Backbone:
């Protein structure tokens, strides 16, 4: 069985050679960005702190058992999720923290990363060892299940922009 989320936030379940859409609660204009399952347990995350969970391998989706504090969900766009059994780690933009549930969403913890740039992908080898890759190539590692994060590679700290314009009138005001 294979699960996927498309750019229109539709979740698809493939069994054998059949592809079927899966129903989920309506989330308005929020876009779903990442999906991760381990056996029957899975999470679907997206913009504006959107989060849905499944306990049946993706056939049905629902809001978490416990409400996440509004100060977290209203300030984050989730871009990535990793699931190992009932444990899950969620990260995104900004990349200042990783949201963690050790028990399938019954309780939540916030772990600080000290990394302000967006986290694009998070992955765990086991329940203790994980990595997060951020914008501009930053790589973070944890060896304690996400409680602490250590920078392994610092990406670019500044960006540059070069523009060539044939006429002064064509230069955008922002530049």
Residues:
């Amino acid at each position: 069985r294979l699960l996927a989320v498309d750019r229109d936030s539709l979740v698809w379940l493939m069994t054998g050679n059949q592809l079927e859409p899966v129903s989920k609660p309506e989330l308005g204009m929020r876009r779903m960005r990442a999906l991760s399952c381990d056996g029957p347990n899975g999470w679907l995350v997206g913009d504006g702190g959107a989060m849905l969970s499944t306990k049946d391998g993706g056939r049905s989706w629902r809001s978490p058992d416990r409400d996440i504090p509004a100060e977290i969900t209203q300030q984050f766009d989730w871009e990535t999720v990793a699931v190992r059994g009932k444990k899950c780690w969620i990260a995104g933009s900004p990349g200042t923290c990783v949201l963690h549930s050790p028990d399938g969403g019954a309780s939540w913890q916030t772990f600080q990363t000290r990394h302000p740039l967006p986290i694009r992908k998070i992955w765990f080898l086991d329940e203790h060892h994980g990595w997060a890759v951020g914008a501009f190539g930053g790589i973070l590692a944890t060896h304690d299940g996400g409680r602490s994060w250590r920078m392994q590679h610092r990406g670019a700290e500044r960006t540059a922009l070069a523009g060539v314009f044939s006429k002064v009138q064509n230069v955008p005001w922002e530049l």
Notes: The mean pLDDT is 86. The longest helix spans residues 70-73. The longest strand covers residues 77-84. The radius of gyration is 18 Å.
